[in-house]
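URGENT: need a sanity check before tomorrow's submission.

F., can you look over the LUC7 related protein record below? I want to be sure the sequence and structure line up before it goes out.
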Amino acid sequence: MDAQRALLDELMGAARNMTEDERKSYREIKWDDREVCGPYMVRFCPHDLFVNTKSNLGPCEKVHDLKLKESFEQSPRHDAFVPRFEADLAQFCEKLVTDLDKKVRRGRDRLAQELEVPTPPLSSEQSEQLSLIEEKIKKLLEQIEELGEAGKVDEAEALMRKVDGLNAEKTSIIQPNSKITALIQEKKMELCEICSSILVANDAADRAQSHVAGKQHIGYSMIRDFLSDYKAAKEKAREEARLAREKEDEERRRKREEMEKSREKREQSRERVRDQEREKSRDRDRDRDRENDRSHDRRGNRHVGYRNGRENYDRERQRDRRGRDRSRSRSPIRRDRR
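Structure tokens as predicted:
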């Protein structure tokens, strides 16, 4: 009834049986409402996979509506909601697979115990029979050895056939019932690793195919495939994000290096300009110093020439005066006057 009601809701809408007054107060459900099943919108709902199987999860508490799913697929916000719905589905499927793997381990352990066929213990009567048979075989082997030494080959071969019969009788007593062993081998069981079902090994092909085509096997196959694809996509996205971050870091590092090189070039250019300015300034200072030195030299030469001329003039006057004085001392008029 619940499945039929859900089907009618999908085909005719949830308000199909409402009156006009009820429809006025009825709020139409949209695909992004909380009561709508997100996993059903994006992929599948696990509740729909195991109907009428021993793994039945019961009806889903949220709304499944084919029209809402079509509206979601045509919505411009479809891509924005897909990761959220897939994450909800992956969380649900992860829980189912975890419980299923526990069942698989328990089934594997149980089969391992069942495959160990215990050897039935021998009764006292069987033990006595084995002792008698072994005693007979021992005596026959001694007789065969004696006959072989005597060259009686035919008689030795006849006794050897009796020994083979006794060995066969001994084997039939020691081994378990062959029919029971054959039945156990025929009914050997195996475990389905996908859905944890116990199957008959080497069963007929049609039975194996019916199991593979069953709801439970298909449902768990879908869940496992979705989880595998989801994890692979997440891993790929993480790897792409890591590569993108590395590329961005490399681009930033390259830009920093380029900026550093450009800054160094600008600094070197400024340093060259400063060196040129300092060199020009030194050249100007040297020119100015040379000009000052030449000016000082010209002024100094004028003073030195004047001073030297004055000194020469004074020396000439003194020389002339001394000459006149000597002339006077030698004059006769002077002596007479004295």
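My own read: Residues 180 and 298 are 142 Å apart (CA to CA). Confidence is low (pLDDT under 50) at residues 333-338. If you see anything odd, call me.
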